Amino acid sequence: MPSNCSAFFIFETMNTLPKPLIEKLNLREDQHSKRMLPNENVLIDFSSNDYLGYAKNELIFQKTHQYLVENNIKTNGATGSRLLTGNYNLHTETEAYIARFHGTEAALIFNSGYDANLGVLSAIPQRNDIIFYDELCHSSIRDGIQLSKAKSYKFKHNDLENLEKLLTKFKIHNTTSVTYIITESVFSMDGDSPNLEKLSVLCEKHQCYLIVDEAHALGVFGLQGSGLVQQLNLQDKVFARIITFGKALGCHGAVVVGSELLKSYLINYARSFIYTTALSPHSTATIYIAYKHLNSEKEQIEKLNKNIIFFNEEINAIGLKHLFIASNSPIQCAVIPSNEKAKKVSQYLQSKGFDVKPILSPTVPKGKERLRFCLHSYNSKKHITDVLVFLYNFVK
Fold first, then answer.
1. Number of domains making up the chain
2. Do residues 117 and 141 make contact, with C-beta atoms less than 8 angstroms apart?
3. C-alpha separations of 245 from 109, 139, 182, 252 in Å
4. How does pLDDT run across 215-249, given as a tens digit for each residue?
5. Is 2 part of any domain?
6. What is the pTM of this model?
7. CA geometry: angle at 193 spanning 292 and 142, to 5°?
8. Which of the listed residues 261, 279, 295 is the one where a domain comes to its end?
9. Does residue 215 sit in the same domain as residue 164?
10. In the predicted model, what is the mean pLDDT of residues 165-194?
11. Among the three residues 238, 270, 295, which one is the final residue of a domain in this structure?
12. Domain Aminotransferase class I/classII large spans what residues (predicted)?
């Protein structure tokens, strides 16, 4: 009997959560911020990061398969880390192509943008170094900074005057350290951009290394969608760029581009690169073919940029400008304070056939909850006007 009781107790314990964790989940429920996995839907897409429609592009799909067949690549998985058995000629070829595309010496593929930011920021800044980062930087950047041994300070969003004050205040007492400044070229929650030209000048003045996350700029800005850094011809001013493939490129993974020395260092010290199975040959081939497609792209980038312009014209014409954060990117956000209200507006728009997601606190600060409209090359002008009219009718 005691042994049966013991087994029953273990079974009950393993099928629940510790009380403090249950309380945290209940708190999310009370605050209307509990996350749940959504069901697949067939609504009009104003939510995904597939800005150019590459994720559903049949030509990229077919050419990827064709490339694998023609090169006799029949491996389902990479079989190990790049440093063991997972490094294929395809990885090397793809990285060389990406480096040329982005006008830099070298490129190193990571399994995701999260892994890339963790790898760069946990490995490069050393003890007693200093990191200054924009207060709205992505969670992967913050998590990477936390894993580093460096001191870190956040500066006000896109406020270079505030950054310079912090540089003067903290650098003067630590002249032997290396200083890194980290920002995004397009911010994922606001859709806005820093003044990268002035920021690069500031970095030169204070001898700082600039790191830029270009996740939401690839495929949107620059010649052939090469990104905002290249559009401004600043590639030689930036120490490292982190570019992810899950947005406009429509596939999976990420890359760090920079010097050959940077690549060599990351291969030796970036734990999120060293201690993980490499991307499969199929995933890598998709990246390679998608980049080649982007390199010859004109139509979808032009359509996307026309839709961004049209969307901004419509929020003015309909009378919604006061709700939206100014942005010339595919990310357009209407601030709807309170989780409960943001969710209600989102549910209303979804009931009208439009997939618009709410962004809730604590993902964004309390009082800054919002609807995030992600624009695409394949959104029609009618769909843009209709969804904004429905929004206006609900919130007026």
1. 2
2. yes
3. 10, 17, 20, 5
4. 999 999 999 999 999 999 999 999 999 999 999 99
5. no
6. 0.91
7. 90
8. 295
9. yes
10. 89
11. 295
12. 43-377
| pLDDT tens-place string over residues 341-381 | 999 999 999 999 999 999 999 889 999 999 999 999 999 99
Within a domain: residue 39?
no
| Same domain assignment for residues 331 and 257 | no
Whether residue 313 is found in the same domain as residue 173? no
Domain that holds residue 253: 58-295
* Residues 312 and 375 grouped into a single domain: yes
Regarding whether 219 and 81 lie in a shared domain, the answer is yes
The helix (run of H) or strand (run of E) holding residue 67 is helix 58-70
Q: What is the pLDDT of residue 172?
A: 59
For residue 63, being part of any structural domain is answered with yes
> In degrees rounded to 5, what are phi and psi of residue 59?
-65, -45
Greater confidence, 26 or 330?
A: 330
pLDDT score at 131: 97
The DSSP H or E segment spanning 391 is helix 381-395
Distance CA 62, CA 157 (A): 42
Residues 97 and 228 occupy one common structural domain = yes
| Residues sharing a CB contact under 8 Å with residue 198, sequence separation 6 or more, in sequence order | 160
Contact call for residues 357 and 351 (beta carbons, < 8 A): no
Strands 331-335, 106-110: pairing kind: unpaired
Instruction: State the Cα angle at 393 between 388 and 396, rounded to 5°.
Output: 110
Strand partners, 181: 132, 210
Does 166 share its domain with 227? yes
DSSP 230-276: HHTT-TTT-SEEEEESSSTT-SS-EEEEE-HHHHHHHHHH-HHHHTS
How far apart are the C-alpha atoms of 370 and 16, rounded to whole Å? 33
* Banded model confidence at residue 127, pLDDT cuts 50, 70, 90: very high
Instruction: Please write down the HEC assignment for all residues of 129-196.
Output: CEEEEECCCCHHHHHHHHHCCCEEEEECCCCHHHHHHHHHHHHCCCCCCCEEEEEECCCCCCCCCCCH
